[in-house]
Amino acid sequence: MHPKASGAGKGSEGPASDAAHAADALLTDLLANTTELLSFYNRDFRLTHCAARLKAIYGGAVAQGAAIWEIYPSFLDSRCRDEFLRVFHGGSPTSIDLPRQPDEAPRSVFVFGTANGVGIRETREHGARSAAEEQEHVILLHQATHDVLTGLQNRRRFGERLQQALAAIGGPKPKAALLQIDLDDFKSVNDTLGHGAGDTLLQLAAGRIREALQDGESAYRYAGDEFAVIQLGKEQPAGAERLSRSLVDAFKEPFVINGIPVFVGSSIGIAFGPEHGTDGEQLMKAADIALYAAKTDGRGCARTFNRSMLLLLEQRENLRRSLRTALERGELYLEYQPLIRPPSSVIGFEALLRWRHPEVGIIPPSVFIPVAEADGLMDEIGRWVLDQACRQALTWPSSLTVAVNLSPAQFLNGSLTDTVAQVIDAVGIRADRLELEITETVLLEKTIDNIDTLNTLNVLGIRISLDDFGTYYSSLSYLKNFPFDTLKIDQYFITDLDTDLKSQAIVRSIINLAHGLGISVTAEGVETSAQVRWLIKENCDCLQGHYLGRPLGAEATSDFVRRSPPKARRTMEESNRAV
Ligand code: C2E
Ligand code: MG
Ligand code: MG
User: Fold this and answer.
1) Section 122-141 average pLDDT
2) Is residue 543 within 8 Å of 522, Cβ to Cβ?
3) With 555 labelled, which of 66, 70, 131, 322 sits at a CA distance of 20 to 30 A?
């Protein structure tokens, strides 16, 4: 509120201050009531006063302290900028026609010097448009430039603003920063909790982005779960670094959707104009490459574009291209890692996928499976793995099981149960010899579909294990609501079992909890005899790890079975002696 001119405070401030207050109050009243689209700016090009009607039309962009080019981006355009600067530097008032979009009415601004900077009166030539028509026009304009779901400015506006910002470089504030923001795990929330929850998440995310913004920063929803912020008039790279830190931090707290806390981080790619791109498309490409680097560096972080990232992208592109043909060229194969029941029985094997790339050599699944998932190839590859693993298991004694990992992409595909049933049938293997491993990411929430799929697989007689337990949400409700046969404790807790009392307490509790629910427990990544001894003592049902047997090729696995694993047997005997 501006202070009204009155006798209050007279004694301390004196007549000059009184007059200033009176003038200010007069201006405030005028601006509240005038139908003119008036605004005033200081010598830093920042908004100091503006008419209420202008605010009604432009909405959030017209905030105290907003830069003039955020309200009138055309001033970033060299023709308008030069004329404007002439008045700003003391030239006579002038009228400037603003460039316009094909669906926009002609607009011009009258720019005049003031004691503190400049004033602008905008004129809109809308002929005899009534107040109601004007209102409707404003709403339509808003709809054309804003995203309905989040209320942020949309992709179209983003493109225009980015172009204008880049055209302005060399003007009063030299650098523009583009931050591309992508939500981590949005897809799994959408897939598991439903599209309604996905929409709510996007709205909440937009709110957090908006809250992180300062002057000179504007946010856009660019596509799906991709957002962008254009930052103008800041010292760089410090400005973009500060903003990206606030944005990453803003996503650390869970989002509560339908009463469920959901953790969704944000990854950010940063690029600067003109350094990384002189037009919008180039700059977006650079920010996108930086975003990809942030995603591959573990997500939930920000990265600024640099040229070496292009190499990374090229490698990924090559990988993607050759992965498409890897299956048909016979470059994919499986290894099998023994699963040992103490003291020494091999009860089965876990099938682990490998890619023998003709030039690069062996590529581990952690590198190419995410690429295959993103490219929609995992369904086909997963089916091949299932088929291959079941055929291989048929060559083993019939008491041995085979465990196959499922990617979330396969699990969410409605035809998983049909595929599994078809493969079992075609191969002719007993259903109870197949175990399917899933991770918690596919079970973010118990959806009807998930329960149905698991129950159907269960009815078929197939066993289900929960892989990597302890590393994701570790929600106990999964254990209550899904018919798991096995729980696999992640290597993370096994690695330091010898020394870490906390890991011991966690593993012991998981074993007791699972046993209480009638679920069997497998320890993953067992690498030492001390770990073996400890796990046997705590009644762990099954062990897997390099100490007991590394993943082996198909033939070596058959040998291993024939020799009835000497290493595993010796290991267990040694362990038993030591216990
Ligand atoms: P996972 O299912 O948890 O598999 C266990 C991983 O731990 C395997 O890595 C295995 O080689 C490794 N491992 C086993 N024992 C030890 C040990 O004592 N020490 C250490 N350091 N590592 C050990 P791998 O083969 O690289 O597989 C990584 C992940 O890739 C798997 O984790 C699984 O999530 C995924 N994966 C592998 N094959 C497939 C597949 O056919 N389909 C799908 N969807 N995912 C697969
Ligand atoms: Mg596994
Ligand atoms: Mg695992």
Assistant:
1) 68
2) yes
3) 322
Choice between 344 and 378, residue whose per-residue pLDDT is larger? 378
* Gap between the Cα atoms of 76 and 231, Å rounded: 14
Distance CA 196, CA 192 (A): 11
**Whether residue 554 is found in the same domain as residue 461:** yes
* Biggest alpha carbon–alpha carbon distance for the chain: 105
* Pocket perturbation via mutation, ligand 1, pick of 354, 375, 405, 546 by most ligand atoms within 8 A of CB: 405
Q: Which of 2, 136, 119, 157 is CA-nearest to residue 57?
A: 136
Residue 203 has pLDDT above 80, yes or no: yes
Task: Give the pLDDT of residue 549.
Answer: 93
362 lines ligand 1 (CB under 6 A): no
Q: Is the CB of 436 under 6 A from ligand 1?
A: no
Residue 551 Cα to ligand 1 midpoint, Å, equals 9
**Distance from Cα 489 to the centre of ligand 3, integer Å:** 7
Question: What total of structural domains would you count in the chain?
Answer: 3
Domain final residue pick, 98, 119, 145: 145
Q: Is residue 326 helix, strand or coil?
A: helix
Token pair recorded at residue 348 = 């089965």
Residue 33: CB atoms within 10 A of its CB come to 11
Q: Are residues 220 and 333 in the same domain?
A: no
- What domain range is 96 assigned to? 34-145
| pLDDT of 329 strictly over 80 | yes
Task: List, for residues 452-503, the tens digit of each pLDDT value.
Answer: 888 899 999 999 999 998 876 667 777 887 889 999 999 999 999 989 999 9
pTM for the whole structure: 0.62
200 sits in which H/E element: helix 195-212
312 CA distance to ligand 2 middle (Å): 28
Dist. CA 134 → ligand 1 center (Å): 63
